[in-house]
Amino acid sequence: MDYSSLRTAAEIINAFRECQNAGEQIDLFEALAISDPPPVEAFVEILKNIKLEAVVALTIQAFGKIKDADTRERLKQSDDLLAILSEQAQSGKTDLICWSAATTIENLKFDFIAVSRHLTVEPKSLAEKIVQGKIKRIGDKNLLSSNDFGDYLNFWIYGDLEKLRSETASIKAQGQNFTDIKKTGLGVHALLAIVDNSKSIIIKVFNALFLRAIRETNQALQRAENMGSSASEVDENELFELVACQEAYSQIINPSVSKENIAILVETQVHCLQSNNSNTRKIAADNLSKIDGSLLSNFNQYYQPDLLTAISLIQEEFNSNKRSTSYYTSNLYKKLKDMANNLVTMLPTLHRNKVKNDCQLFLNNLRNEINTKKELCENRYKATLDLKSNLDKQLEQIQSTNFLVYTKIIVNNTFNTIPYINIEENDQYDLILDNYLQYLHDELSRSKYEVNKFYKGYIQDKLAPLDKKIDNEQANLEQINLLLKISPFASFIMAFLIHIMMHWGGIIIGSIILGVIFEFVAIQICGEFFEGSQKSRRETISKKSSEQHRLNDEKQKILNLLSI
Question: Which residue ranges does UniProt annotate as crossing the membrane (predicted)?
């Protein structure tokens, strides 16, 4: 807003009343201080007639912010102004007014002797004493509920905000918790009071200053990025950065905020992507991912290859720390490689040390996992190739084991070659190879079924002649047994007939004697035949058993060869 037309105290007071927040009020007086010429007479009139703390404090500060050299020289020579400022420095109604007057005397560089006539203590010491008192109270656990907290807060809103920024710069964020790393001599409760009070104060200051606080944080973060490894701890104040990130986003989603102001608020999120604190980076990335893309187009040049990719990478880097090793193993090769390539492109556009180191570590981990996944793929592919090669050799053994089985079954079955695997082209290699192995198992199972079916008939056919021989030999044994049973009677008949035919005497006695002889001969002859048949039958049964075992072993060998 253009304040150059404001010349009188009344105009300035009216403009002050129209301001929407403390940030605009400070902007008003800073603009008046650097205007050409600055309304010095109106400032003096305000100091003489106005009692409102914020107006008085900002008017006093405005004198010290005047840029015009001639005007500053004239003010340095004004004993009246020095008297007014000295009185306010010593006896101002509030610490804010006293501090403003003391720092303005210091800023205008009044003559030391002239200052000594009005003040018993150097203005710098007065200002420092007030600031130290405010800093000391940050650790008071009852500060936020104290009766004078409003006055206390006004000091930081309208006064030495930079001192608050530098004093809280040592508070480092760990997730959502903050720890003051310098005040290690304090107890836990004292530390917590400092941290909690600091955050509450900063939030209230941001609420009061609104866009001004956001803009100043953006400038500090931009300086930090410009300075890189030499960035100051004050510019990288993590607590200010986190509050700015959260407060800026709460205003982005406010429909009443102008597009011009939204650009400043979005810029905060863009800067916070490089926060030293990973949690703040994640918050900024999440915020940006929810913002209308049309509001981000002006910030694409901040990061390479583009802002949206940077947002995604910051989120992924955060997730990788939360999930540790499971993060890398659960992501596909292509995603990891794409992220690695994008990180290589993004890293040169990161300027703050911590985020750069974190992202470099993330990149190193990605590369390790990429190499691991590639090696796993190659090993799995090689193992499958070896398995298929061994299977081919086993199938060749089947050919030499039983050529008939090979030609009737194995040749007709299809054992396709392994599909080409390249993780660079398809990182679903596990699924492809699993499917291929399942296909082999299915084919081998089918082949086993056919082999079992084949051998069922094949063994029967091979053993059929032996079974027939065994049956014949069994019949022979039964016939010999029958002969042995009828041999006594047959022998007597034959002997009797011979006596009759030969007209021998003593038919009965002779027939008996001759019958006994015939029976003895028959028994001897049948016995030899019986033993021979039994021996032949045993040998045939043994041969059948051996052949059956051989065929079963052959079948089992082939079934074993049809396994992987």
Answer: 507-530
Residue 536 has which token pair?
Answer: 């032949």
At 436, which amino acid appears? Y
Please report where in the chains the tokens 């600031």 appear, as a residue: 131
Q: Please provide the DSSP assignment of 262-284 as one string.
A: HHHHHHHHHHHTT-SSHHHHHHH
What CA–CA distance (Å, rounded) separates 552 from 541?
A: 16
SS3 content of the chain, % helix, strand, coil (to 5): 80, 0, 20
Residue 139 has phi, psi (to 5 degrees) of -85, 0
Q: 502 to each of 405, 488, 498, 499, 524, how far by Cα in Å?
A: 70, 21, 6, 5, 26
The residues pairing with 174 across neighbouring beta strands, listed in sequence order, are 177
> Can you give the pTM of this predicted structure?
0.77
From CA 289, how far away is CA 449, in angstroms rounded?
59
Tokens of 82: 């020095």
Residues 6+ apart with CB under 8 A from 532: none
Please state, in angstroms and rounded to a whole number, the distance separating the CA atoms of residues 184 and 181.
Answer: 6
Among 529, 527, 533, 496, which Cα is nearest to 514's?
496
In the block, which residue shows the tokens 């290699």? 429
Among the listed residues 240, 220, 216, 241, the one whose alpha carbon sits nearest the alpha carbon of residue 231: 220
Type of residue found at 530: F
Alpha carbons 275 and 40: distance in angstroms, whole number: 42
Measuring CA to CA, which residue among 215, 282, 206, 220 is closest to residue 250? 206
Tokens found for residue 44: 């003096």
The whole-angstrom separation of Cα 26 and Cα 449 is: 91
Q: What is the pLDDT along the chain (564 residues), one digit of tens a residue?
A: 678 789 999 999 999 999 999 999 999 999 999 998 999 999 999 999 999 999 999 999 999 999 999 999 999 999 999 999 999 999 999 999 999 999 999 999 999 999 999 999 999 999 999 999 999 999 899 999 999 999 999 999 999 999 999 999 988 765 445 555 455 556 667 778 888 899 999 999 999 999 999 999 999 999 999 999 999 999 999 999 999 999 999 999 888 888 889 999 999 999 999 999 999 999 999 999 999 888 898 898 899 999 999 999 999 999 998 877 788 888 889 999 999 999 999 999 999 999 999 999 999 999 999 999 999 999 999 999 999 999 999 999 999 999 999 998 888 777 778 888 888 888 888 889 999 999 999 999 999 999 999 999 998 998 898 889 888 888 887 777 777 667 666 666 666 666 666 655 555 666 566 666 766 666 677 677 777 778 888 888 899 899 999 999 999 999 999 998
CA distances to 83, 305, 365, 423 from 301, in Å: 53, 9, 27, 33
